[in-house]
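User: What would this chain look like folded?
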Amino acid sequence: MLPLLRGLGERRLDLLMVSHADQDHAGGTGSLLRGLPVERRLGAVPGAAGCRRGQRWAWDGVRFEVLWPLEAPAPRENAAGAKRNGASCVLRVDAAGRRLLLTGDIESPQEAQLLRLATEAGVGTEPETETEAKAEDLRVEVLVVPHHGSRTSSSTAFVQATAPRVAALQSGHLNRFGHPRPEVVARYLAAGATVLNTVDCGAWQWRSDRWTQPLADCERTRRRRYWLTAPAVPAAPAASATPAAAMAASSASSASAEVGEGEGSDPAIEASSP
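Assistant: Here's the prediction, encoded as structure tokens.
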């Protein structure tokens, strides 16, 4: 992450938020803290306040809101060896009328609670603003698929409630966990989502001010390496008009070669001689 941020010209971070302390999520935190000044910390970052539902802020018209967990996890829950997936920070981003949901490694019990909370928020109250109405709706344009597409996440109810146009999977090539599970990928495809997997896509980018297809760009498509492009198939040689013409052409070539190989001859001149 640090080389990427430096390559993008970033020299400081306004906020560093890490979903939970598993190494595949938090492993680069130390190098980031050493390499760039960080103004605020949230989640599984040393010295940070834990994530808690209801935390929200806005920058330049972009709204951020933490949807999970209900309470900030105790420090021991971020210790090595503790079960942390269910305490992952879930962050919703609203920008220009579009939504992105980052889910960490939550699993089906947490998904069910998010659905319940969204339902309860919409019962018995009339939202005063469009923002409040949208807050009760879990639908998003881009969903970072929970827990890398494991079989313990992405329940049918959650997939239908979020109804993402793009489902982004983060997984490693031939990883030992078998992520993403084929049945999970099929669930998103059946819901009409475009599924992106970092195994095939590499890094992907999404911009809230981009309305044309594709909604998210794959780095391996944008900057395709020349050695990944199959060479063009050479065109088949034109067929001779008749077998006699082919035989005549072959005889002429043989004669030219024999003349050109004569002792003391000039191949360029001899090859053009009748």
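The longest helix spans residues 243-260. If you want, I can go into more detail on any region.
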